[in-house]
Amino acid sequence: MTTGIVYSPEYLEHIPTRATHPEARGRLILVKQILDEYEIFKHPSIQLIEPRQATPDDVLAVHSEKLFELVKRTSKEGGGYLDTDTVASPRTFEIALLAAGGVIEAVEQCMQGTIENAFAIVRPPGHHATKKRAMGFCFFNNVAIAAKYLLRNHEMDRIAILDIDSHHGNGTQDIFYDSLEVLYISLHQDPLTCYPGTGYLEDLGVGEGEGYNVNLPLRPLTTDEPYLYAINEIAIPLIEQYQPEFILVSAGYDTYYRDPLTHMALTTYSYKEIFRNVKALSKTCKNKTFVTALEGGYSQGGLQQGVLTSISEMADLGIEIEDVPPEDYQEANYEYTQKVVAKLKNYLSPFWNF
Ligand SMILES: [Zn+2]
User: Fold this and answer.
1) Closest Cα to residue 340, out of 230, 250, 247, 244?
2) What's the CA-to-centroid distance between 136 and ligand 1, angstroms?
3) How far apart are CA 161 and CA 175, in angstroms?
4) Is the entire prediction scored with pTM above 0.70?
5) Would you say the C-alpha torsion 331, 334, 339, 344 has a positive or negative sign?
6) In whole angstroms, what is the distance from residue 234 CA to residue 354 CA?
């Protein structure tokens, strides 16, 4: 079986106009460079997947018509600011559709059984885009659109989304906050110290969605060990109990210790462990597959070593990356993380068994 990789040079054509914008095309150039260096696309276990554009119907199942039209019109008029950090260029509308459609194509091919799992190397990212608002470099919520696509087109009723970006995926939370058809689990840097300032422990969902929105805020400078403890104590047991029909990973690599935008302290070891675990977990669920979509990540090491390690685990390529551990970290964060995990388990105990 093979791992699909969604990629297209068209993803470079969304060009936020501010010269220093961190969500720049260079991010994907770095990713492509390392994959070429390791001859990943020539590997028999890897299959390149051409993305397609998401249809208006796919997008409107998640976002308001007003947002859809705003992104379309702003791009058509040559670009412009949708908020202080979210800047459209002339082709942004089409490329944002191609990003969402890339994740749809990945899940569709997994469902057809042509590939075992897939990594969608897409931009612009998606997890900050709410039902009604483009924000945080995101226009349309790629992972939410793919989840909704599976719910609608494959008659599913249980999708798990694991969000490992350093920022809270406020958009994904907003879209599925009242739904039990999507279990959203996000580990992120504490909202008190990090954009967008949402993602508190107490935000569990509403109505029938209560208990299906799980936030795990972590202190700045949290290292691999406490991070993986939190994954093992919360994310894995919840997904095991939920028995999703499909797992989606919102993979941001801004948790990497050299990221310029956020302040977590992970090395590639965490990504290796996360993807090894998610792959094993996917085998215990119906359909036995999962799709990873690129979200943030703004350092060379996070994007290159992080993505390469993740793909290596997904496809069993056995690539070992030697990483230099961070010099700046907080030892006390392990104890803090244990306390947060215990508190979260307590909040979740009416809904889940631990
Ligand atoms: Zn991020």
Assistant:
1) 230
2) 8
3) 12
4) yes
5) positive
6) 9
- Rounded to the nearest angstrom, the distance between the alpha carbon of 339 and the centre of ligand 1 is 24
The 3-state DSSP class for residue 7 equals coil
CATH architecture of 3-348: 3-Layer(aba) Sandwich (3.40)
Q: What is the pLDDT along the chain (354 residues), one digit of tens a residue?
A: 899 999 999 999 999 976 679 999 999 999 999 999 999 999 999 999 999 999 999 999 999 999 999 999 999 999 999 999 999 999 999 999 999 999 999 999 999 999 999 999 999 999 999 999 999 999 999 999 999 999 999 999 999 999 999 999 999 999 999 999 999 999 999 999 999 999 999 999 999 999 999 999 999 999 999 999 999 999 999 999 999 999 999 999 999 999 999 999 999 999 999 999 999 999 999 999 999 999 999 999 999 999 999 999 999 999 999 888 888 777 779 999 999 999 999 999 999 998
Gap from CA of 171 to ligand 1 centroid (Å): 12
Q: What residue ranges do the domains of the chain occupy?
A: 3-348
**CA–centroid distance, residue 14 to ligand 1 (Å):** 18
Name the catalytic one among 14, 63, 128, 168. 128
128 is catalytic: yes
